[in-house]
Amino acid sequence: MSCTHDHSCEDHECSSDWSLYKHIDLPKVSALNESVSGSVKSVFKAWEQRLHSSGEHLESNEGDPELLVFVPFTSDVKIKSISIVGGPDGTSPSKLRVFINREGIDFSDAESMQAVQEWELAENLQGVLEYQTRYSKFQSVGNITLHFPESFGGDTTQIRYIGFKGEATQLKRDVVATIVYEIRPNPSDHKTKAETGGGFSQVE
């Protein structure tokens, strides 16, 4: 879906403003059935770089177009839309199923579980299409798993870009706990001069 604003979003960078790229925990992103280990990380980039490629992309193993991509975030997010740029010659994914806040999903799980939402995809080689989420179901997303069951007839599935738009909601609980611990006063840092031999006592 294109932006409904009364201006060009390319000029006003609306898409960049809403991009969740900076909130993706990239080192922890992973994929099942990728032909080159770790290649999945190359498809996550800034919105304005979505069509720029140095040849790196995510591709399934030959003869098996199914892919499963796990994407954790550094903060909880609300996801408004998802954008997928696939490969040419029938290698773009033709369907997307998503699961939220479920870690360790494999292909067997994905096939048997009820997805939060599913989309029939179009071949989006120019990166102009976005798929709107059922927004009420995409609140407080700590991680998302993307299941691409099939391509448009190609022997493999290729993905050049995956993008999310929305907003960050709050810090992760473990990060918050660390911050609270760090800001908690340490009594040893607040001794009076009398306690340290400085000759002054605390004023009542």
UniProtKB/TrEMBL annotation:
One of its GO terms (cellular component) is cytoplasm. This is PITH domain-containing protein. Belongs to the PITHD1 family. PROSITE patterns: PITH. Residues 9-184 form the PITH domain. It comes from Brassica oleracea var. oleracea. The lineage of its organism: Eukaryota, Viridiplantae, Streptophyta, Embryophyta, Tracheophyta.
